[in-house]
Amino acid sequence: VEKLKRLGKPLELAQEKHDKDCRCNGGFKTQEEIEDYMSQYSGLERDAREWGDWMFLHRRILPTFDRSTNVLTKSWMMHNWSGYAPKVGSLYVVLDPHGSRPNFVQFWVAHPNETHYLVAELPSFVEGEFRGKLFKDIKNYYRPTIEVATQIVATLKWINLPVEDMVIDPRKGAAPVLSVTSGGHKEVDSFNEGLVAAGWTKSQFRTISSDRDDVVSVEDGHRQLNDLFAAMNNITSNRMMMVSELCENTIWGYENYRREEDSEKDGKATTEKPQEKAKDPVDCTRYYLSARPKHYQSEREKAVNESADYGLLSDRSKKDVDYKPDAVYAL
User: Fold this and answer.
1) Rounded Cα distance, 155 and 248, in Å
2) Report field, pTM of the whole predicted structure over 0.85
3) Using CA atoms, how far apart are residues 56 and 94, in angstroms rounded to an integer?
């Protein structure tokens, strides 16, 4: 029915019955032959062939990202993690603040099996105020810093893993902004004040710094991402960088992150400048990799049976399997 609606065809066609070898409506192949043909494609290419959409693969900046290989389904997470986040790992929070469009936040887990898992994002596509709405479609956005900080804290409590680092766009450590409590100071300080006001005192945001982090060019960051999306983890037989299907905004960003179209003034050269509409999730992920993420064994993990194999795909063998998060996934 949904396909008929999208194609603008009469919904009554859904009730029609056809023989297996039917080639009605001028078709050259049977439904079985069509399904067999389509089975060789996945992700964007399958959608494009099914719906006749343009893929623009020639301008995709992250062509190695694929929903069929880099996205964790809810059923996979429930089976392997008994929830939507692993029970072991080091948590990294990345913030890309904005004014007229949503502040973008990603919550990454550096796992003992060396995989990088994106387990949550803000704004959320699955719950809350912007449920079912992509970040690119959220217009005239502004939310007080304390409101954003409160959402971040709620998500940290839900994931309930040791926070290893919290990083923010490197440009947010210089420009002074007006603070309610202490006058003009850096934007990163405003967010840290918000965290404290929301009841979080365990860690704070810091700006990405060339003294501490692997600050590379945007183009080199794109290369890092493409390599990680394509690389296989020999321990898990999954990719080295995986994204929860709950993080639809990030998935959409990866799939639609493209270079600007070449203009006449570019001549024969191909412009390297990315389009703005899908860049926020990618920027966050570049900042995450700049922070040199790795897993650090926590005290809780040390208490787990020393014989537990942390390289296993599943976390369910750990003694803390009975852990229940103290907040539902509500963001």
Assistant:
1) 16
2) no
3) 29
C-alpha span between 301 and 308 (Å, rounded): 10
Cβ–Cβ under 8 Å, residues 108 and 288: yes
Q: What is the pLDDT of residues 178-233, one digit of tens each?
A: 444 445 568 899 999 999 999 999 999 999 887 888 888 888 989 999 999 999 99
Please, are residues 62 and 69 in contact by the beta-carbon 8 Å criterion?
Answer: no
Are 135 and 104 spatial neighbours (Cβ–Cβ below 8 Å)? yes
Burial of 19 (0-12, 13-18, 19+ CB in 10 A): exposed
Residue environment code for 62-92, b if the CB has 16+ CB neighbours within 10 A, otherwise e: bbbbbbeebbbeeeebeebbbbbbbbbbbbb
Residue-level pLDDT at 87: 93
Distance CA 188, CA 204 (A): 9
Give the bridge partners for 239, in sequence order. Answer: 232
